[in-house]
Description:
Elements: H1 2-20, H2 28-52, H3 57-82, H4 90-102, H5 108-120, E1 136-137, H6 138-143, H7 146-156, H8 158-172, H9 183-207, H10 209-233, H11 250-256, E2 260-261, H12 265-270, H13 277-282, H14 291-297, E3 306-307, H15 309-312, E4 320-322, E5 327-329, H16 332-341
Parallel strand pairs: 1-4, 2-3
Antiparallel strand pairs: 4-5
Helix pairs in contact: 2-3, 3-4, 3-10, 5-9, 8-10, 9-10
Amino acid sequence: MKATMNKKNDQKGRAWLDAVAKYRRPHHGRSVWQLVNTLVPYFVIWYLMIRSLEVSYWLTLVLIPIASGFLIRSFIIAHDCGHGAFFRSRKANTITGTLTSLLVFTPYDQWRHEHAVHHASGGDLDHRGIGDIWTMTIEEYMQAPRARRFRYRLHRSPWVMLTIGPLLQFLVLQRWARRPMSKREHFSIHQTNVLIFAMALVMCLTIGWKAYLLIQLPIMALAGMIGVWLFYVQHQFEGVQWARHDEWDFATGAVEGSSFYKLPRVLQWITGSIGYHHIHHLSPKIPNYYLEKCYRENSIFQDVRLITLRSSLKSLSFRLWDEELQKLVGYSGIAAYRKRHGIA
Length: 344
């Protein structure tokens, strides 16, 4: 039975990989145009926000969501560069990725490494912990010390994960190494810190530290909240499939372990079609502007469970992975687990 299932997965995997092959070559004209229609509006809005401070901070706040949208879009460009998907030249990807990552205070090479690990092990329960959202199984949670369970609950709380969590991640945690890293990753962190300091110094000397913080912090907070939510819901959704390593394969883990998040057209544009995450995880070399095209031209990618803005809210209740039921559950799943096993 297991051999038959593995054979079917292999066949599906080959079909999926064959389907994405022709979309992997970036179009330099489209990539350059995406840089223009993302960065130019972002800097224009920054200028307008600076001028709006002379009128009313309420006017500045009205512009914050627009600026945050373009900041998210700039990070999608950095994300594509990290996968070598935005330009055919590695040097062009590195330069572009470094500069666009800087706008979100992210060390490009360090983040690129973590994200590559995340892609290589998507849906693999035995290779969690780098570049993903901390997720425990029910058994792991029950066996964990009380302090670890408390930290886990704090980490998984939507109030933490979507409020102070993004600012803590982008402003603080990314400023130094949190695990063994290569010299290149260390250099990436130090280089980013120096460039952030230089950028902030220039802004403080030109518009003043107060004006800079009044604009920069709200943009980072909102963009970070949306970005973390997108990353969370891409792998924490109803119907997600995870497996232990001996039963896991890359293609199945990519397509069935990643969501198809159907967003309104404006949000899809802002997020660089990252909602087609099942295709992106299968072939991260596909530029973001070809993801929808790949989806529409290949029915094999349309036979997946989609989530919408409304249905995605259910993901907020997920806390643990139940290996027996093969699904994400809330903390109430612990009581159900105890009852199934007759544990007092």
